[in-house]
Fold these 3 entries.
Entry 1:
Amino acid sequence: MNSHRILDHPVLGKLTIEKEIPFTFDGKKYTGYEGDTIASALLAQGIRTLRVHEESGSPRGIYCNIGHCFECRVTVDGTPGIRACLTELNPDMIIESGKQQFSPFKSTENQDDLPRTYAEFEKQLKGEKEDEPDV
Amino acid sequence: MDRIVICRCEEVDLEEIEQTLINYQCSMREIKLRTRAGMGYCGGRTCRPALNAILEKVSGEKQPHQIPLKVQPPVRPVSLGRIGETNYE
């Protein structure tokens, strides 16, 4: 289960396991140890993708690991935007990863044909020739 | 060359920033507004030094008259409930 842990560190010594803490990540049950952060407990299980980019869906995980970059934010017990790298694991936490969101207003096809202002829209509606838009 | 992501929050890569800089000959603030680099969840805390370094590299000199990327509060994301001092959470 916790196969990715360093059990015998050359400087820090042997890992002493205090207490097991059960938690849920995306509906699956896992076990961490007392003193784990959410990120370290999941990393020990081999889970490195904590969320995906909201728009593109590319995977994101631990980046700075000091609470700086907000790349590892997850939803904990319904509270969004919790940094997995700084939050200590509590028993029976329900953790959800960040999901891809819809982007209905991002137009890529015929983008240049679309009106940029309401005045342009009216002109297109009347079928008039379009002026060069002011930039 | 592999894609080098500079702003991870808004997923803007080095090539896009450099192309925008070359096309528009603009300040870093304008790059921010055009590409959204540095406007993401972390507030530009991760990529701001990189963005300024790219501008220096592309323009070849320090920009004395550029409008710098400013830092403005809140420097960390907070919920509206917390700003309003209600016990919403």
Note: The interface with chain B takes residues 53, 55-56, 58, 60, 63-64, 68-71, 73, 79, 81 of chain A (CB under 8 Å).
Entry 2:
Amino acid sequence: MPYQAEISRTNPSCFLFLIDQSGSMQDPFAGGESSRRKADLLADAINRLLQNLVIKCAKEEGIRDYFYVGVIGYGERVGPALSGQLAGRDLAPISDIGNLPARIEERKKKVEDGAGGLVEQTIRFPIWFDPICHGATPMAQALTLAHDVLARWLPHHPDSFPPIVINISDGEATDGDPSIAADALRSLATSDGNVLLFNVHLSAKGARPIEFPARPDALPDEHARLMFDLSSPLTPAMRTIAQQEGFVVEEGARGFVFNADMVSVIKFLDIGTRPSNLR
Amino acid sequence: MALSIRMQWLPKAGNRDDEYEDACWPNHAVTTSQPVVRCAVADGATESSFAGLWARQLVAAYAATDTADWLTTDWLTTLPQEQARWQAQVAARTLPWYAEAKARSGAFAALLGVTIAHDPDDDEWTWQASAIGDCALFHVRSERLLTSFPATTTAFFTSRPLLIPSVPNQFAALDEHIQQARGDSQPGDTLYLTTDALGQWLLQQVEQGATPWRAVETALAGRKRGFRRWIAGLRSQGQLRNDDVTLLRIGWTER
């Protein structure tokens, strides 16, 4: 059975995020849920996700390297997109992510005081990834770069839980058909299964999100069907998590959401990156 | 007669001894003629931090509870003090942002406490067990399982049980989740307290009609090395989940 490998410090896994940084990301989400730019909201979600991943791997003695993590941006240029000391690195062990944020901001948070009341706490909020939105959508190049990065990582981790690549974009590729690059990426494998490629399409029309479809029939256009084809099926464990989160997921459900709003992006990232077999 | 208490433990394969997050009480071999003896095992959740610290605190708190009223679950009344003590110990350290954030959500642990009492007037022995979570007690007589608690089938171990949090949590109505059992025992019996991975394996053996108790005794007789070899074998055959393992054995001995 694939996708069962134990994730440990001697057998870590990998997350690679591909983030659309094209000019259209400066628009707000359709539907008026917020006047903030898509790029800003997405950067918040990515920073929050990195923070959660680091915290999941944190123990009293430090951060256990259960994962390697990378963020690739694509827009005016295609390349590693973390800021600060991690700038230029395509993959970093999660301990480096935790120890080397670009900066740490302070935010206020209300928490329970244990006696039925609330107290305000100052929370340190690390930032690794800043919003950029400029240029076209060279998705095929980003997928090719992801392939090259993982092709270098995999020989060192031949038995790992397969790397998970999450591609988040608000539009169509402007550098040709991304299928060939996506197929090559998904054909990479460890002894535990093929690399998983999941896709999030951000809403432009304010339409209802279509989450984890199992068939392309209900998708509204060519682009949606193309992105469906690029996406790997969810693993059985992820399907179970998605069902627990209230999604209707059929056998063969793909790691794909079309017309995602921010809520559905965050839920998607949670389901796609929740480790279940840490040791 | 006296009680002889022995224990063995191991961290997950690939982890160091100081990364072991179970705990047991007592934590060293004891032979005792006390009329009331309290033993406990706890399993700190890997997903939380400072979980080993929390597990050690819980077993000590169970053992230290006033034994006069041992039929009740009064050890839970000490929980707020224990939570405060855990938080103070963690707060005393300078932590990086992630360790601070992780500690804020608290540590979690399963706890099983067993109190054995001897009534000298009619020379009767009884045990009373309380549990939250998926640690397990096995009462064995003549290589036959009399009682397993709180798990009665292996299916119990596949659910995600409520655990004891180290930070106040208004959603955890712990008293509703305390399981309790009691039984009579006699010299020659054996009580085994285990954390979940080994508990699941033992119950699975029983369900399959096997008698695992002799293997357990052989492993314990081999001390740390014998126990380690036995557990490594079960893990490599895929029979035992790679988890921290704790086994505490209570037996009767002539004094």
Note: The interface with chain B takes residues 6, 8-10, 51, 54-56, 58-63, 98-99, 101, 104, 111-112, 114, 116, 123-124, 126, 278-279 of chain A (CB under 8 Å).
Entry 3:
Amino acid sequence: MITAEEIEKLATLARLSLSPEEKERMRGEVDSILEYVATIQKVSAGAGKRTPSIVAQRNVMREDTNPHESGIHTEALVSSAPKREGDYIKVKKIL
Amino acid sequence: MIDLSTLTIKKAHDALLKGEYSAVELAESYLAEIEKKNKELNAYLEVFDDVREQAKRADVLIKAGKASMMTGIPIALKDNILVKGKRVGASSKILTGYVAPYEGLAIGNLREAGVVLLGRTNMDEFAMGSSTETSAFGPTRNPFDPSRVPGGSSGGAATAVGAGLALAALGTDTGGSVRQPAAFCNTVGFKPTYGTISRNGIIAMGSSLDIIGPITKTVEDNEILFNAIAGRDPMDSTSIDLGASNLKLKTSNLVVGVPRSFLEMKGIDADVLANFNESIKKLQARGYTIKDIELPTIPYSLAVYYIIMFAELSTNLSRFDGVKYGFHKDADSLLHDYMETRAEGFGREAKRRLLLGAYVLSSGYYDAYYRKAISVRTLIEREFAEAFKSVDLIATPTTPTPAFKIGEKTKDPLSMYLADIFTVPANIGAIPALSIPSGFVEREGKRLPLGFQLMAGYGQDQLLFDAGKTFEG
């Protein structure tokens, strides 16, 4: 069974703080789901590796030209943020 | 009084052009129904405050002779589809207060045509669920039995159409989120070929699987709505134009494949199977040839789906950190701001899937889960392509059971995931699939609707509309 330490590590990777009860419940739930999805190990997929998928097979680039007028979207975007200072999004200090 | 119960997009369009009623009168009829029934059903999270103004603009277009099929048609939107200037929230607390600063091509085209957007409908949080129970705003109730779920994740949209609170709706389908609730609410649900409708302007869950899908009362309506929103969009590099592939469609001697051993697996309801066999007979009577087929890798679609979706959604949901949008919870540092915001902003299913996404992508497990799932996915695509060389369509039930009770599956997430067993393969294969109402079963004195699903090869979307209309007729 997945350990409490492993759940703790996953929660940190996912940027989630979990209560002790949540951690304990997640252990059981995550375990049974992982056991189910691991059934794909039974498929021999050697050949599949060499076939490209129908979707998302290449990156599509465009020329970096015709920029929009500076600042026209600022208000709409910055006003979505919970905390702002003028035209900046405000966050706590990082270093 | 406009008879909403038998109304279709086609009929409403004709009536609007003839001047039998105005777009404003039509919109008001729906607003009155919403007022009457939404309290019990909880289909709409918000009814837009400018419905009458939108309808007035549609009437102006109609009077000027500039109407197209969607002009004045009142539709509902799932709460993960952006409309510029309107609230949108994916039924999550973490998007509290968020107003869409833009909209995608699908909504832009509809608005230009003078569609009437009634409001945004309830869904599983970030489309994570098959019952609309993971919404932060309470479950939506099935219009045929309020003690049961409407399916999900587009449960509010399907309920709105099924209960007559909208003439049509747009949902999104990542693993069955349009077709499964459509089946539970006696409506037609369509998941088009991946890329045929731009994903720009929808809130992402699994980006390689997500697509907008119409929910309507008839197959013809579904085709009308699909054609109004489909097309390549420079803002979505995975979007495609179907045009060319639909030119060489077969129209006679069509063969329908039935993957018997897949659909007669453990867990399928006996009444669902009997109803499916009736549907097959109906197609046979209408000139289709039925052929049993084997799809040995397809049953693994669900496991493949969950791994890919966990990985993609945990990546997509990393943008919700309390800095850029919506809900924010303050803590003692930036890192703890993120962690506390996400702990309080996301619901239980979201948290579970975020952990699983971190797991399948973490070093040590990446090869065994994510990389393996990607290679099995290409095998599944190939298995479908191979199957469609000998059959034109593949049929399954849409769901293994009729609508289940509210609360019945919430304690066992895996049993909830299994509700998608028949719908997920089309998303993994990137192919189109259509769910059509196929009759009712009785449970505890209530009639519950079932759906019949047809899948077609990549880009063969029109084949499904043609077969669907034959099936309905």
Note: Chain A has three helices and two strands.
